[in-house]
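Quick one:
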Amino acid sequence: MILLKLKSAQPLAFFAGQFVNLRHGEVIRSYSIANIPNSNHELVFHIRVLPNGKFSCFVADELQVGMPLEFSHAQGNCHYVEGKSEQPLLLIGTGTGLAPLYGILCDALENHKHQGEIHLFHGSRDESGLYFENELRELENRHANFHYTPCLSAEGNDEKYTQGRVNQIALQQFPKLEGWRVYLCGQSEMVLQTKRQAYLQGASLQQIYADAFSS
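Output:
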């Protein structure tokens, strides 16, 4: 995973968790914004380098500090919504699906002082996909209402990680989701399956925010 930081030449209106389209030549890819709005007009993205990925390989191998990149306005409704600070939040993500969730989490805790319980479940097949552990543990230590659960779907360190598929673990832990707000980000099949199951477990469709990633 590569952490890409861009600075907008002009102020850009956005909510943490929304996405923009980044462009290099004729190649356009959508990436979620992983940080909250700031006075420096910075945008942070988590880029997974894919084999033969035209844009991700460009970022990994060719992009240099100071090189310009084109990007669109911010889009999408997967972001923190004000007005219900006591509402419990369930965040489930795989891989770099953590990017929008991390932005939403920081927005909820740091900007809006969210008071309800927040549970973040981040899943990966292997340990290399569970990044930002230190940052998330630090947030967990600073905010008593935030709880972080890293999950491995392949065999790994049983003492450090919860074993199993992240969506199954989260939904088993919280079988009744009436009144919850749910955020789902990452691999498209996981997002679609979990959205359906969360609804069956009581979550309102209007309270489920999804961002399905394509490979």
